[in-house]
Design a protein that fits this description.
The complex is a heterodimer of chains A (283) and B (218).
Chain A lengths: L1 H5 L7 H5 L2 H27 L2 H21 L3 H19 L4 H25 L3 H10 L7 H30 L1 H6 L4 H27 L1 H4 L1 H9 L3 H26 L3 H26 L1
Helix pairs in contact in A: 3-8, 3-10, 3-12, 3-13, 4-5, 4-6, 4-7, 4-10, 5-10, 6-7, 7-10, 8-10, 10-14, 12-13, 12-14, 13-14
Chain B lengths: L8 H8 L23 E4 L13 H10 L10 H13 L15 H13 L5 E5 L7 H17 L3 E5 L12 E6 L2 E6 H4 L2 H8 L3 E5 L5 E5 L1
Parallel strand pairs in B: 1-2, 2-3
Antiparallel strand pairs in B: 4-5, 6-7
Helix pairs in contact in B: 2-3, 2-4, 3-4, 4-5
The chains are: A mainly alpha (283), B alpha/beta (218).
């Protein structure tokens, strides 16, 4: 029993670790991902495509392990599979949600199986598998930072350009289409952006914990404010808070950063949800 | 636009909006092809339920005005004024800052109508706007549509399966019978034989001495 608690040992040298060069990369990478996930997360919640975001993360798994097998960069493999899967899901549109959930879930299960197979064929497989499933922000490389920065600039620029029509189409496709908003093109475009953000986010929290970075903070923000602009800003701040505080706590107590980041994001969501409920009951 | 379930009312509406292509022939609406005019606004059935709690009523109405413009810009003071004026016109100004999820069915229908109106359309298409509303809200929404029709000069086409609440405001009806659309004025439509044939169940038109009109089954 005692050994469980011994793990939580305070690291007295945590400040030195925080100021080291690999931690600087982790902080910059985490910041880039937090901003991108906050911006796209708002639309994920409004469009009701949280399941698609979850599925894309899993579809990325064979991309990542396959890339290792072929000796290619993990980010490239992730991006190809996530964006490819995103285009397919986006082209299917939002019709008949139940039908699509079954199709998406089936593809997702197959993708994870394929990921496992690729991983079993590669030599340095187990660490990649764990990194992709649970993320490893500390392993982020300077090259990946450049790629992530480019993704972030692209995502933010496109979201700014299509903000209003995307919001209109997210609320109701029929009305937006009747006003000549190119709903189908926006749907595919949005899913591609989501694919890029998922590629980045997998690096931070992994495919299994991605929900907590892309969906949870945005859902928390929407509970706190109904204003679209403020909700996006708040989702972004909550994400930054989770990632930065998560890294600090992880360093202080020598814990996995993904665990700390996800715990902070989920705790904030839970507190806001519970206090929101009691506020409504009083009314 | 009346007719029994499955007769194609919503399909015809979607053709008018340019959401569905026609298999043969051409459709002209306000002198243009469907989907090529900005003068038509549309309120689908159960419209505002989808947005849930993410948006306020004012944001929802704003989309009717700014939802088609690209690029990132703030809603101007003049645009907010227009949105607020439209919310007043549909008697829903008091809920303008509330989340959609907290509104009643009647209030949501008003917000949906406000979103359609804010772009100043010439033609307003509504699919089952009275569905899921209680009697009082049905009456209020009908009075509102009647008022918008007379004060703003907006032509209103609505899909309905219950004629009764509408009889006092209708000019006429499109009815879909045996795969064809027909139009007649109110007096032509409220006919025992026609309604019985249309709905496939015996119906009678009753005129009271006060001049009220209603349709009832046997």
């Amino acid at each position: 029993m005692e050994s469980i608690f011994v793990c939580l040992e305070f690291q007295t040298d945590w400040w030195q670790v925080m100021t080291s060069s690999f931690m600087r990369n982790a902080l910059i990478g985490g910041t880039l991902v937090a901003i991108a996930a906050g911006v796209i997360g708002y639309f994920v919640v409004v469009r009701g495509t949280a399941f698609a975001a979850h599925a894309l993360a899993h579809i990325g798994l064979p991309g990542a392990t396959g890339a290792v097998l072929l000796g290619l960069p993990v980010t490239l493999g992730l991006a190809v599979f996530c964006v490819g899967g995103a285009i397919v899901i986006g082209a299917l549109g939002r019709r008949r949600a139940g039908d699509r959930e079954v199709a998406t879930g089936t593809v997702l299960a197959f993708a994870v199986g394929l990921g496992l197979y690729f991983s079993s064929q590669a030599t340095r497989s187990s660490s990649t598998m764990t990194n992709v499933l649970f993320g490893n922000l500390l392993a982020i490389s300077p090259q990946e930072l450049i790629v992530f920065a480019a993704f972030l600039v692209g995502v933010v620029a496109v979201v700014c350009a299509v903000f209003r029509p995307l919001l209109f189409a997210s609320v109701d496709e029929r009305v937006a289409r009747s006003r000549r908003v190119p709903v189908r093109a926006l749907s595919v475009l949005f899913m591609v952006l989501l694919g890029l953000v998922v590629t980045m986010s997998v690096q931070v929290v992994g495919t299994l914990l991605l929900f907590a970075l892309v969906v949870t903070p945005a859902a928390t923000a929407i509970m706190l404010t109904p204003r679209p602009g403020r909700a996006i800003a708040l989702a972004l701040v909550l994400n930054l808070l989770s990632v930065w505080a998560g890294l600090v706590v992880a360093t202080m107590f020598s814990l996995p950063p993904s665990f700390c980041i996800v715990t902070i994001a989920c705790t904030i969501w839970l507190v806001v949800r519970l206090t929101g409920r009691s506020r409504q009951v009083q009314l | 636009m009346i007719g029994p379930n499955g007769s194609g009312k919503t399909t015809l509406l979607e053709v008018l909006l340019g959401l569905l292509p026609v298999a043969s022939g051409t459709v002209r609406i306000l002198g243009q092809l469907p989907g090529e005019t900005d003068a038509i606004a549309y309120v689908p059935q159960d419209y505002t339920a989808a947005a849930g709690s993410a948006l306020r009523a004012r944001d929802m109405v704003a989309l009717g005005l700014t939802g088609t413009s690209w690029g990132f810009r703030r809603t101007t003071a003049a645009q907010w004024k227009r949105i607020e004026d439209t919310m007043r016109a549909v008697d829903a100004f008091e809920v303008i800052d509330q989340r959609l999820a907290t509104l009643s069915g009647g209030q949501r229908q008003r917000v949906a109508i406000a979103q359609a109106l804010v772009s100043e359309p010439k033609l307003l298409l509504l699919d089952e706007p009275l569905a899921n509303l209680d009697l009082r809200n049905q009456r209020e929404v009908i009075s509102l549509l009647d008022r918008l029709n007379s004060t703003l000069g907006v032509t209103i086409i609505m899909v309905a399966h219950d004629l009764n609440p509408l009889l006092r405001v209708l000019d006429g009806a499109v009815y879909l019978l045996d795969g064809h659309a027909h139009y007649d004025t109110l007096n032509g439509v409220v006919d025992d034989a026609l309604l019985t044939h249309l709905y496939g169940t015996p119906l009678h038109v009753v005129r009271t001495v006060q001049g009220d009109l209603f349709v009832r089954g046997e």
